[in-house]
Amino acid sequence: MTQKRHIYLETYGCQMNVADSEVVLRVMHDAGYDRTDEMVKADVIFVNTCAVRENAEERIYGRLGAFRNRKKTKPGVVVGVLGCMAERLRKDLMESESHVDLVVGPDEYRRLPQLVENAFAGEKGIAVRLSRVENYDDIVPLRTDGISAWVSVMRGCDKFCTFCVVPFTRGRERSRTLTGVVKEVSELSFRGFKEVTLLGQNVNSYRDGDNDFANLLASVARIDSFMRVRFTTSHPQDMSDKLVHTIAEYPNICNYIHLPVQSGSDRILQLMNRTYDLGHYLKLVERIKRAIPGVSLSTDIISGFPTETEDDHRMTLDLLRRVEYDGAFTFKYSPRENTKAWHMGDDIPDEVKAERLNEIIDLQREISLRKNRELVGKTVEVLIEDESKKSPKDFCGRTDTNKMVVFSKNGSCVGQYVHVNIEKANSATLFGNEISHN
Ligand code: 5AD
Ligand code: SF4
User: Fold this and answer.
1) What is the pLDDT of residues 96-134, one digit of tens each?
2) What is the atom index within ligand 1 of the atom nearest the CA of 260?
3) Sign of CA dihedral 70, 72, 78, 79
């Protein structure tokens, strides 16, 4: 019997990449490769990359250094760079990193087994064609059993925000079939998963015939009422009232919406080509809060976009105060070649970007803390996800509104829903005691 080959895969970047890596593992598994978590055992080393900001790419270059050392020890090993950085840098990557055998973009993963075979025979390969149709609808991602699963429902992005490389690295928007997604989630429910997150760069532009994202969400929610349904990411321009009401209607669709705003200044939003203004965004937030009482909101903010003034920055801080997000993901602007913003220059000095970013982070921390403290003394329902990393006597899990809760064990187990009485809170986590499980 020939010995099985092993694949080692590291994933960087967004949840789409996590989902894509599971597609890669399936494709390679079906071609006879087992996954290993130990690089030293691997015949094939893949890194699924992110190109959204420069620091993501720098980190990956660091990892490529580690793979180069591995290849010195074991010259037969095949090294492949997959994903957005592969798409963005293409030939440059292969030329500057001589130990890289394969450069494969996000729409070419079906070809991986053949490309790897060729690489074993000494032939390097670049496959970076973007497709208008590839959605891997028929490929069942290879997942380890667990509580939560990521399910990609659409790929690509047609928005062309001026700062963003995604439309160039992931190509045009295309959706999976509703039946394909429903089948996949039904199987996950059968296998014991308790939560799914439907993924897309802009889930609101999902479409399969007459079905839009609200229809898809409702169909998924109906599969298993004990399964939590989450989704990300929503674009504020495309979020329909129908979708908001669907979230309100189904108890197992979580009351949590990630709604990236990017900036609180209309002038900057226009330069970013976000296609909405603050008035539109705030009205949407109002409608959401009215339709879904207790809803939790989070956002993405970029600090130091070209020409951003102190006034623009103040408007972003004001917006945070007005919306009172539960959390925010914050980034320093990072110029990306080929995007429109690249040509606007990068005129905000790094220290100013960092200063503004810190102000945003500090303010958001205050708001998150205040909101979390409002829950002290209350009872929340938590889906237990795991043992707490800090203490084996405690569990951790999340509320429907996506708040992390750490609490002492009381006879229940991972995957159960329990009621927890909240006793204290910081800006990131709630702490409490389990009072019952159902
Ligand atoms: N610089 C900084 N942040 C960026 N993002 C996307 N592109 C850039 C960039 N060039 C952020 C946006 C987006 C999130 C996923 O990453 O806030 O919503
Ligand atoms: Fe990038 Fe904008 Fe598309 Fe999000 S919506 S992936 S920020 S282009």
Assistant:
1) 888 999 999 999 999 999 999 999 999 999 999 999 999
2) 18
3) positive
CB atoms within 10 A of CB 23: 20
Which residue's CA is the closest to the ligand 1 atom numbered 7? Answer: 164
From the CA of 24, how far away is ligand 1's center (Å)? 25
Give residues with Cβ within 8 angstroms of 421, minimum separation 6. 377, 378, 379, 432, 433, 435
The domains located in the chain, with CATH, are 5-127 (3.40.50.12160), 146-254 (3.30.750.210), 267-374 (3.30.750.200), 379-437 (2.40.50.140)
Question: What end-to-end distance do the CA atoms of the chain give, in Å?
Answer: 50
Structure tokens at 387: 């043992």
- Give pTM, 2 decimals: 0.96
Atom of ligand 2 nearest to the CA of 233: 4
The number of the ligand 1 atom at minimal distance from the alpha carbon of 334 is 1
Tokens of 318: 């004001």
Cα–ligand 2 centroid distance for 84 (angstroms): 14
